[in-house]
Amino acid sequence: MTLVLAFDTATDVATSALLDGERKRVLGERASDAKALLRAVDELLRDAGAAPTDLGALVVGTGPGSFTSTRIGLSIARGLGLALGLRVAGVSTLDALAAARDGALPVIDARRGEVFVPGPLAVAPDDLGLEPGTVCVGGGAVRYRHTLEDKGAVVPPDDDPVHVPHARLHAALAQEFGPAEAVQPIYVRAPDAKVTSPA
User: Is the pLDDT of residue 6 over 90?
Assistant: First the structure.
């Protein structure tokens, strides 16, 4: 059995999943925050009676989302990939969200009064041009529900699992596997933190 570990840390809810890569069967899933990802991964492996050395490949969410959280996920993927000699595939967090429901528009909270949408772009919710009846999913859709619904969009209930970028969807979308260091993040815009030079 070839085990595939997938995870995404770009949004407020970090997700991880362990899959039988040959049968495409989910062996376990976890939701946590980005800082608890390694603990969640350890639990997944233990529950499956597996060790890190049993992994055959990794899939990591590449964002867009929180700059820091996205970096955490990519750093863990690179660390595991290099330490275990695993090939890694990156999958957009927007693509994984969209895969949860046919025809859904993924909307990730980008802070600063903006959302990330396919493009990828960072835009104000008021500036989104939506067809009436468009189903919007993701943390940004929940946060800006009233704005999107006023535009004729449909936003599922806040607790609907469709708003979470489940790692099993990343695994299903993964196509090109390669060296861990080749996987690049999708940031869309510059980070909030600024480096200042000494006076």
Answer: yes
